[in-house]
Specification:
Layout lengths: L16 E3 L5 H4 L3 E7 L4 H17 L4 E7 L9 H10 L6 E3 L4 H5 L7 E5 L5 E6 L3 H15 L1
Parallel strand pairs: 2-3, 3-4
Antiparallel strand pairs: 1-4, 2-5, 5-6
Length: 149
């Protein structure tokens, strides 16, 4: 069963490695938090990453914190060096957890790539969505939260 709306931000513990630093839970309080699950073997994930980074860059100064979670879908996704290379190649500056053992995935009850989880200023799940149009579906909710901010 997917994570229910209004659920508090689950633990981000369990990543086998963090690229660009592990998010500090204290720094996430009072921010809008967008958690993005992706995998190297997911073409839609890779297609949406530049759009996500553009959104992150546009709204960082308005309280948005983006956290990426690389969650392997297949054996080839387990190559952490390839994940590091992709993060560098795509100019990702946001924290990116490598969820080798799917611990974070389980805490979010996530089963689909790509997936987006948007948490409001109080750390409660406001919107969750997945797939190719996921970011398009999250962005209006995010913009409304920024306006209410």
């Amino acid at each position: 069963m997917p994570l229910r709306l209004r659920t508090t931000l689950p633990s981000l513990e369990g990543a086998s490695e963090w690229i660009n630093g592990k998010p500090d839970p204290a720094e996430l309080k009072g921010s809008l938090v967008l958690v993005y699950f992706w995998a190297l073997s997911c073409p839609v994930c890779l297609e949406n990453l530049p759009k996500l980074i553009k959104l992150s860059n546009a709204y960082t100064n308005r309280g948005l914190k983006v956290i990426l979670i690389h969650c392997p879908r297949m054996k080839s996704d387990g190559n952490t060096e390839m994940v590091r290379e992709a993060v560098t190649l795509l100019s990702i500056k946001e924290p990116c957890g490598i969820d080798t053992y799917h611990k974070i995935k389980r805490s979010f009850q996530n089963e689909i790539w790509p997936s987006y989880y948007l948490f409001d200023w109080d750390g409660r799940l406001k919107r969750r969505t997945s797939g190719k149009s996921g970011l398009v579906l999250v962005e209006p909710v995010f913009q409304k939260l920024v306006e209410l901010g």
